[in-house]
Design a protein that fits this description.
Elements (H helix, E strand, L loop, with lengths): L1 H51 L9 H4 L2 H26 L3 H33 L7 H34 L3 H33 L1
Helix pairs in contact: 1-5, 1-6, 3-4, 3-6, 4-5, 5-6
InterPro entries: Cyt_c/ubiquinol_Oxase_su3, Cyt_c_oxidase-like_su3, Cyt_c_ubiqinol_oxidase_su3, Ubiquinol_oxase_su3_dom
Keywords: Membrane, Oxidoreductase, Transmembrane, Transmembrane helix
Membrane topology: Multi-pass membrane protein
Amino acid sequence: MAHTAAVHSGHEHEHDHHDHHDHESIKTFGFWLFLITDCILFGTLFATYVVLHGNTNGGPTPHELFKMPGIIAETFILLTSSFTSGLAVLAMHRGNKKGLIGWLAVTALLGASFIALEVTEFVTMVLHEGATISTSAFLSSFYALVGTHGLHVSLGLIWMVGLMLQLRKRGITAVTKRKVEVISLYWHFLDVVWIFVFTVVYLMGVM
């Protein structure tokens, strides 16, 4: 009787574990669907920018507005943050909770530095160059594209801070593991989008 109960309990535990694993897989799949819709969103914004970037309405042109040293610094910071988010995932797979939280914190700091530089760039353009979102079709499409990317990075930062608090409280579990993998994937995605922004908007703008 006791043996039957133990076997039944073992099967129940195995079933719960399998259900939990399936639940996490469904959430990961849901995130991939979100990334696909985000690709469509950014694709639309890029297409709009490419069509409208020459319509300056007599206002400042990309060549006059873009200060490449600051943009290169932003790019370097964001690419470095992608590397540190990768190190966070490696620390997680080694079961190193302290290293995982530490690398996530470094990634968040780099992300915050990127946002600070971007906000400074926008403020300078508006206050010193009079380049507002309503100045021209070029600037409307520019702020829509670059601003949407910046908003995604900001949301990623809030998400990352919340995840660090969760990791500190609960440690590395199946749930937090999935969340770390998802935030890392999201962060790499934003880096890829930025490389396109850097090339299509900034490099082509100053050439």
